[in-house]
């Protein structure tokens, strides 16, 4: 199949069924819940819990737990995507992953040792990635190519909306961790119930796939990376995410140990201010970037420029390690990352090798989201420990994002 050829399911040509008209708003809710967990728990509740258990070694412990848990995210996302492809349905995987995440978050809320926290966060990452894999596949499943930039932008609003809500909930429950974890579990379960109840599944028609050997399954699983454009999209996403999470994953500790905060402003309270600033900027650039990329039929320029901007703004806290500097950094970083994620998601749906393997291949791409998070905690911990602080961390994160911008250039089939 040619690299720029796209096959859409026949159902997309039919009038949209009444119960499908709410698809994009429901996907926005589902993605907002997903990002609320990742941002609220990952940025505040988990670091707070670790700091209470082992304040002297919090940076290293967070690095180890974050890295190991990301292995589970990396493995479970494409596996769950491939299984949902094979079953021909998404809703059972969405609902099952969400309910399992509720149980895992409840377990994490009662953890009192670093080992149990690590086990709990691994379970959360595994179950949330089952949920994420099925939710992510719905856009290439059911949205026509001409609307994917707009659809990806709307779905991409899950990051600013979910991130803001998640951080606000986490900052208000940081002193009551058990309650905070249960609230996040309820949010994910509720969003899954809404999506699966109000938007019917669209099962694949035709004969079931013929059984294949384990070796053939592995070859098929990795076949997407043999596609030139998909491979470069994968590399660009991985570098961008690695640069972003190397810094953002340690933001609570950065505010505590590196930035001069105004008197009376605690790091969780500072996060509750910085996150809305970043997310409002992210929401603006997500919508504008997605819509303009559709109107001008251009993806690469938006992706490349936003990745380059994300790299350059990392110098702001280096030059000005102050509260004002962090506010400026948060706004500019939000603008850059929001535009990148919205338009890059649309770009990726246009370079998928086979539409019938959309969830599997999107799961492979999501390794570029989860995989760098395996490396990011170790990189961040090593940089902070070996190079003597958070200034080198900002510089490393910026360099990775700039290289990610260059990785977009070789893509040929998308303008």
UniProtKB/TrEMBL annotation:
Major location category of this protein: membrane
Keywords carried by this UniProt record: Membrane, Transmembrane, Transmembrane helix
Transmembrane segments: 22-47, 59-80, 92-112, 151-174, 180-199, 234-254, 269-289, 301-320, 326-352, 364-387, 393-411
Occurrences of domain Major facilitator superfamily (MFS) profile (ranges): 24-415
Pfam families assigned: MFS_1 (PF07690)
GO terms for cellular component: plasma membrane
Keyword Cell membrane carried by entry: no
Signal peptide segment: none
GO MF, one example: transmembrane transporter activity
Top-level division of the source organism's lineage: Bacteria
Gene3D superfamilies attached to this UniProt entry: MFS general substrate transporter like domains (1.20.1250.20)
Location of this chain's protein in the cell: Cell membrane
Topological type in the membrane: Multi-pass membrane protein
Protein known as: MFS transporter
Lineage: Bacteria, Bacillati, Actinomycetota, Actinomycetes, Kitasatosporales
């Amino acid at each position: 199949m040619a690299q720029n050829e796209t096959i859409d399911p026949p159902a997309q040509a039919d009038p949209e069924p009444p119960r499908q008209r709410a698809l994009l708003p429901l996907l926005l809710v589902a993605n907002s819940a997903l990002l609320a967990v990742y941002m609220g728990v990952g940025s505040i509740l988990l670091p707070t819990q670790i700091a209470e258990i082992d304040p002297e070694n919090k940076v290293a412990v967070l690095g180890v737990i974050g890295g190991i848990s990301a292995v589970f995210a990396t493995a479970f996302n494409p596996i769950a995507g491939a299984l949902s492809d094979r079953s021909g349905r998404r809703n059972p995987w969405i609902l099952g992953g969400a309910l399992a995440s509720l149980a895992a978050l409840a377990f994490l809320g009662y953890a009192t040792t670093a080992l149990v926290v690590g086990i709990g966060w691994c379970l959360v990452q595994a179950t949330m990635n089952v949920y994420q894999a099925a939710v992510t596949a719905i856009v290439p499943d059911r949205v026509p190519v001409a609307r994917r930039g707009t659809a990806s932008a709307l779905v991409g609003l899950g990051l600013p909306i979910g991130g803001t809500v998640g951080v606000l909930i986490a900052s208000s429950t940081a002193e009551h961790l058990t309650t905070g974890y249960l609230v996040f579990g309820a949010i994910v379960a509720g969003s899954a119930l809404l999506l699966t109840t109000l938007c019917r599944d669209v099962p694949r028609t035709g004969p079931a796939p013929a059984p294949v050997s384990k070796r053939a399954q592995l070859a098929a699983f990795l076949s997407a990376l043999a596609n030139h454009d998909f491979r470069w999209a994968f590399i660009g996403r991985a570098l961008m995410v690695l640069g972003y999470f190397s810094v953002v994953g340690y933001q609570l500790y950065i505010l505590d140990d590196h930035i001069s905060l105004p008197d009376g402003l605690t790091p969780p309270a500072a996060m509750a201010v910085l996150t809305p600033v970043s997310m409002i900027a992210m929401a603006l650039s997500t919508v504008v970037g997605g819509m303009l990329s559709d109107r001008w039929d251009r993806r690469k320029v938006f992706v490349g420029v936003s990745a380059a901007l994300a790299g350059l703004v990392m110098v702001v806290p280096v030059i000005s390690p102050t509260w004002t500097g962090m506010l400026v950094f948060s706004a500019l970083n939000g603008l850059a990352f929001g535009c990148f994620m919205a338009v890059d998601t649309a770009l990726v749906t246009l370079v998928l090798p086979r539409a019938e393997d959309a969830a599997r291949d999107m799961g492979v791409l999501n390794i570029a989201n989860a995989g760098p998070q395996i490396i990011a905690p170790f990189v961040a911990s090593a940089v902070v420990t070996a190079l003597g602080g958070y200034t080198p961390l900002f510089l490393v994160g910026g360099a990775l994002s700039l290289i990610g911008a260059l990785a977009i250039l070789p893509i040929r089939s998308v303008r």
